[in-house]
């Protein structure tokens, strides 16, 4: 578990890398687990962001489509942030999902909510081929891992947000420079011009700026030919 914690906190350039590390670390760290996935529920939908095996994506999607299962309960019900199934062939809580998952060779499952932030919730899904796979030791390991995962995801989301903000600032700055040069106006006037275009067209300021920079780059390329 200590090695997994160090692995999850290694520097990373993007969220996909963090998610990939997370599911692989869970597979290696939590005893008796055969498949791992991460689900994220937003206001509009639930989706799988990473999985160790295509089967995990398949049974995840079953739960999304049927709107029932340990994954759905852990994500959408704050009172059920941890849901364990000892035997999918005998559990009556999900009459449509449980038999379908069992038909894919899965017998045990554990869903854990690892973060709740506004309208977004992230969950860790653990699947096992044998019944009663999640004993006290396994559940304790999964709970500890979920804490590490929450920290890693929070760090990754912060870095991603900061990177996006920096990129937006840079692209808007380039667009301001283009407007200043084209119309011989001040920096403040150029920024207000971009803001008015954004409001009039109902397009985000960053996208307006990116489009303007792209057009300027294309014109520069054509002029150089």
Question: Which labels suit this protein?
Answer:
225 residues; alpha+beta; 16% strand; disordered N terminus
Walk me through what this model shows:
The chain is of the alpha+beta class and about 220 residues long. It is about 60% helix and about 15% strand. It has helices at about 1-10, 15-30, 55-65, 70-75, 95-105, 135-185, 185-200, 205-225, and strands at about 35-40, 45-50, 80-85, 110-115, 120-130. A hairpin with a 2-residue loop joins strand 4 (about 110-115) and strand 5. The longest helix is centred in the C-terminal third of the chain and has 48 residues, at about 135-185. The radius of gyration is 23 Å and the shape is elongated. The model is unreliable at about 1-5 (pLDDT under 50).
Q: How do the strands line up in the largest sheet?
A: 2-1-5-4-3
Cα-to-Cα separation, first versus last residue: 58 Å
User: What's the gyration radius in Å?
Assistant: 23 Å
| Beta-strand content estimate | 15-25%
Average pLDDT figure? 81
The number of strands is: 5
């Amino acid at each position: 578990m200590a090695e997994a914690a160090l692995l999850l906190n290694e520097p990373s350039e993007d969220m996909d890398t963090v998610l990939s590390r997370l599911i692989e670390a869970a597979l290696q760290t939590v005893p008796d687990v055969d498949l791992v996935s991460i689900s994220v529920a937003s206001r509009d939908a639930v989706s799988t962001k990473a999985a160790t095996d295509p089967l995990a994506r398949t049974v995840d999607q079953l739960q999304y489509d049927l709107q029932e299962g340990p994954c759905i309960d852990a994500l959408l019900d704050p009172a059920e942030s941890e849901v364990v199934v000892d035997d999918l062939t005998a559990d009556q809580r999900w009459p449509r999902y449980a038999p379908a998952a069992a038909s894919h060779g899965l017998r045990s499952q554990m869903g854990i909510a690892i973060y709740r932030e506004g309208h977004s919730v992230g969950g860790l899904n653990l699947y096992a081929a044998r019944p009663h796979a999640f004993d006290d030791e396994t559940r304790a390991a999964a709970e500890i891992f979920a804490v590490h995962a929450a920290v890693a995801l929070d760090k990754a989301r912060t870095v991603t947000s900061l990177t996006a903000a920096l990129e937006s600032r840079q692209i808007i700055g380039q667009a301001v420079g283009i407007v200043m040069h084209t119309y011989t106006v001040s920096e403040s006037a150029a920024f207000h011009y971009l803001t008015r275009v954004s409001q009039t067209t109902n397009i985000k300021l960053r996208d307006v700026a990116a489009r303007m920079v792209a057009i300027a780059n294309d014109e520069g390329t054509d002029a150089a030919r």
